[in-house]
Amino acid sequence: MQHKRTLAGIALAAAAIVTLAGCSATSSASTSGTTDTDWKTATSAESAGGMDALVKAAKSEGQLNVIALPPSWANYGKIIDGFTKKYGIKINSANPNGSSADEVAAVKSQKGQSTAPDVLDLGNAVLQQNLDLLTDYKVANWSDIPENLKEKDGAWTRDYTGLMSIGYDSSKVKSAPKDLDDLLGSEYKGKVSISGDPTQANQAASAVYLAALENGGSADDITKGVEYFGKLKQAGNFQNVLPTQATVASGETPVVIQWSYNNLAWGPAAGASGNKNWKTVVPEGQALASYYSQAINKDAPHPAAARLWQEYIASPDVQNLYLQAGAFPSTLAALEKSGKVDQDALDAAGGAPKDSVELTDEQATAAAKVLSAEWASTMGS
Predict the structure, then answer these.
(1) 158 pairs with which residues across the strands?
(2) Which residues of 65-87 are buried (b: 16+ CB within 10 A; e: fewer)?
(3) Which of 34, 51, 98, 311 sits between 20 and 30 A of 200, alpha carbons compared?
(4) Beta pairing partners, 67
């Protein structure tokens, strides 16, 4: 497929304001006999006294530790605020600009401490390498999540995806880039950045995957993607700066290859904190998607709150909040079937991507090995 897909319309959805009605809950016939120890091993709310018992235990814990969730990323600012407003549970948000690897490092280094992450939001390559850190849990609407988007026992569930895109400051770039090859031109000298180290961060790695697809590589061999970024650096166009909403707003990082929902959130949709000249384009050719996964730290210091967060994240209201930011939620088909989907947001997003590539677990693991072996030497870092 060769036609260009643009996502500027999603910005309208990203700016929408939604009042959370709260996640659906199954009432418990009994809320007695549950302890924190019970919740550390509970594989569903029903198995440990029901939703009422879960809410009670989570409120008793009073806190939830999340990590690497920037407020502008897939609407997490509203999602976090909504959880606290609904349940009165304080959320401690650590290292919001951290990578998936940073999340895992925090779990390991802070094991047994009250500051350790309770829940994780991981890219697939890092997820597959750290399954031993997770615990099984199935949310009440488990059946709404497609079989291919969840681990059979509940160790993880895919949550939302976007498409790899090019965000650019139209006041600093004269012509809109159509694909990654355009970024090799002299107009982009010192202007192109990605979101972190591809050996550590899924979003950055996905930029390399897309480059592979565009340059004769494949999901089975992303070497061509590494080679592309080597050429981008040799041309003097690669900027080794971590882009953030602030660097985009200031014009410091005028071209960023990252998920569509993040590029959209950093533009006009962000209001005064955004860049009014920021535009988002999904490159011509094969689109690249990648779901992030929700999981619970098996040693979570707040095990009930961690499980309540999973229930909340999987609820229709929060799945629609992802959609309003231009991220496609894992339960989208169920939302459409039940009539609970935010149709305006879905229409603005142009419907769920039907022709995108997503690396399998095996391909993501193989790609991580290529990046580990070749990225530093290619980029000279």
Answers:
(1) 293
(2) bbbbbbbbbbbbbbbbebbeebb
(3) 311
(4) 94
Least Cα distance to 361 among 156, 216, 136, 106 occurs for 156
d(CA 241, CA 148): 35
DSSP result, 179-227? SGGGGGSGGGTTTEEESS-TTT-HHHHHHHHHHHHHTT-BTTB-HHHHH
| CA within 13 Å, CB half, 230 | 14
**pLDDT tens figures, 263-283:** 999 999 889 999 999 999 999
Q: For residues 371 and 364, give the distance between their C-alpha atoms in angstroms, rounded to a whole number.
A: 10
Question: Going by DSSP bridges, is the β-strand pair 164-169/255-259 parallel, antiparallel, or unpaired?
Answer: antiparallel
- Biggest CA–CA distance in the chain, Å, is 68
Alpha helices in the chain (DSSP H): 10-14, 36-41, 51-61, 76-87, 100-109, 124-129, 202-214, 223-234, 245-250, 260-265, 303-314, 316-324, 332-338, 343-348, 361-379
Phi, psi of 65 (to 5 degrees): -100, 115
- Cα 104 to chain centroid distance, Å, stands at 15
For residue 75, the number of C-alpha atoms closer than 13 Å in the C-beta half-sphere is 32
**Is residue 176 within 8 Å of 349, Cβ to Cβ?**
no
Edge-to-edge order in the sheet of strand 192-194: 5-6, 278-282, 164-169, 255-259, 192-194
Q: What is the CA angle 211-333-285, rounded to 5?
A: 20
Angstrom distance (rounded) from CA 195 to CA 257: 8
Task: Please state, as a whole number, how many other Cβ atoms lie within 10 Å of the Cβ of residue 216.
Answer: 11
Q: The whole model's pTM is what?
A: 0.83
Residue 293 pLDDT: 97
Q: What's at 64, amino acid-wise?
A: L
Q: Is residue 125 within 8 Å of 309, Cβ to Cβ?
A: no
pLDDT digits (tens, 9 = 90+) for 32-66: 334 445 899 999 999 999 999 999 999 999 999 99
What are the backbone angles phi and psi of residue 120, rounded to the nearest 5°?
Answer: -130, 150
